[in-house]
Amino acid sequence: MLNAFSYLNIVRRSKAEPQLISTYPEAWTSRYLRERFEKYDPVIIRAKQCSAPFEWGVDKLTTTTPRKGREIFEEAAHHGIRCGFSIPISTAAGLFAAVSFATDERKSSFQACIKHGTVLQFMSVLFHRQIRSLAARERQVGDTILSLREFECLDWASRGKSAWEISCILKISRATVAFHLENAKRKLGVKSITQAVARFASSR
After folding, report:
1. pLDDT tens for residues 58-89?
2. Would the pTM of this model clear 0.85, i.e. be above it?
3. Which helix (H) or strand (E) covers residue 99, if one does?
4. Topology (CATH) of 3-138
5. Domain range list for the chain
6. Which residues are CB-contacts of 161 (< 8 A; sequence separation ≥ 6)?
7. Is it true that domain 141-203 has CATH number 3.40.109.10?
């Protein structure tokens, strides 16, 4: 019997790849991320629309489930992910996360576990906060914590990439790159992007 866990963190209105921490089969998670299935996954779509934990599974699909969503469920089932329990986590700054507990059969042992939904929800929120805290420390330059985009833009600038090249790499406009670099410069308390890049490089 497969018992698996996943944590999916998404930046809304962004082309950035979602962050996935999971014990799902690697063959499935690799394909899921590569094909950007989170855009069509009925579980993620529902999680974005409600705040309450919910059950899902192949046996709960309805005639209104889009074809793409049904295909994702059917393919996941081939990897032993047939049903589960998901906990949406709404966060600030345009972030969204969902924690899921999955299994290959809706057995009594699984049903008994998800009856403790309040406990699972509490644990999921704590896990999410810990991941966010670790991510923030990774984006720290000296005593300053940069946003993900500010960090990415400075990182590429430190590798000698121009604003135009960074815009192509991150698939955002050149003006947006300039905006994030200016914000990073302001946060770091320096007068030029060159100084910001030097401060960034010395902190790595």
Report:
1. 888 888 899 999 999 999 999 999 999 999 99
2. no
3. strand 95-103
4. Beta-Lactamase (3.30.450)
5. 3-138, 141-203
6. 169
7. no
